[in-house]
Amino acid sequence: MKTIVLIRHSKAEDITRGQKDIERKLRKRGLHDSALIANRLKGENVVPDMIISSTAVRAIETAESIANVYGFDAGKIVKEEFIYKGYTSGEFMSYINTLPDSVETVFAIGHNPELGMLAINLTNNSIFYFPTTATVVVDFECDKWAEVESREGKARTFLYPKLFKHENDD
């Protein structure tokens, strides 16, 4: 089985005058939310063999926060510019289809609207609400990444921080 975990970056700071969008960092809440979701995934035995991220600072910081929860070497996070610049589902699938078969589970950290649309296209489902740190775990019944196809995935779980709001209230 192959598993793709799509994760929208966590809550980022607002853009300021003179700042580029790609430079936006996570808010304190974003760091908390990414660790929260990573711990939930870990509790469900969803463990990354590979983490890929957009080149935007907020996505990289989300990926690093998640990697920290797992003890995953942050230096091994693969940063892909196409995830920041935008892509079609077909382009994402072409990328996924080339992954080494030794990788069973890949975490992909990116942005909306692409991630929300990708979730729909991978599962043939209607996951329209994709807030910051929203995460969908998609399983494919195959042994090779080259066999992973759109609309063949099964959404195992869909998480986002507000599902656990009561646990965050102090």
Task: Walk me through the structure.
The chain has about 170 residues and is α/β, with parallel strands linked by helices. It has a single domain (about 1-10, about 25-165), classed as Phosphoglycerate mutase-like (Rossmann fold). About 35% of the residues lie in helices and about 20% in strands. It has 6 helices and 6 strands; from the N terminus they run βαβαβααβαββα. It has helices at about 30-45, 55-70, 80-85, 90-95, 115-125, 165-170; strands spanning about 1-10, 50-55, 80, 105-110, 135-140, 155-160. Strands 3-2-4-1-5-6 form a 6-stranded mixed beta sheet, with helices on both faces. Helix 1 crosses helix 2. The chain is globular and about 45 Å long. The termini are far apart. The model has no long low-confidence stretch (mean pLDDT about 95).
Q: Write down the Rg.
A: 15 Å
- Given the structure, what is the number of helices? 6
For the record, the CATH architecture stands as: 3-Layer(aba) Sandwich
Number of strands: 6
Structural class: alpha/beta
CATH topology: Rossmann fold
Topology:
Elements: E1 2-8, H1 28-43, E2 50-54, H2 57-70, E3 78-80, H3 81-85, H4 89-96, E4 105-110, H5 114-123, E5 135-140, E6 154-159, H6 165-168
Parallel strand pairs: 1-4, 2-3, 2-4
Antiparallel strand pairs: 1-5, 5-6
Helix pairs in contact: 1-2
